[in-house]
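Ureidoglycolate lyase
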Amino acid sequence: MRTLRPEPLTKAAFGPFGDVIEIDGAETRAINQGFARRFHDLAALDVATGGGRAILSIFRATRRPSPIAIDMLERHPLGSQAFFPLSPHDWLAVVAEGGRAPDLATLRCFRVRGDQGVNYAAGAWHFPVLTLAETQDFVVVDREGPGANLEEIAFAPGSVATIAAD
Ligand SMILES: NC(=O)N[C@@H](O)C(=O)O
Ligand code: NI
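Predicted structure tokens:
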């Protein structure tokens, strides 16, 4: 079984899996008579497939026992799924490339800062949201609509990977 070492999240490294949501590098616009700044169009929301619509939710994540075991992966074939933390604590995004099944040789863990979010592209294999705090709320924007938008693959316990303790 592999030990995944969290790597820093960068736009380049995360490119195959979706978008990094962050102020750094964003197109910005002064708005509201100069009393606010807009960081514009940070992620490609893709939710219209099959008559879907965008919804905004809040997930309250709680820390999983260490070492965190990657015993399954999931994906949402009909829509993207964006997460942005509401508290400034690091968290983790675990992803893998692949089509009908994830390619476990490409399994990667990214350490995400508390001022960064991610937007998983439609069909991107990922592990459910992982906080490193005792509890952490996330704004989540994803797809509501007809069709099966959750595919999960479970692995034999202890067979894939754990995440190195921080
Ligand atoms: N169940 C649910 O909506 N959560 C997952 O999709 C996730 O990525 O956390
Ligand atoms: Ni998901």
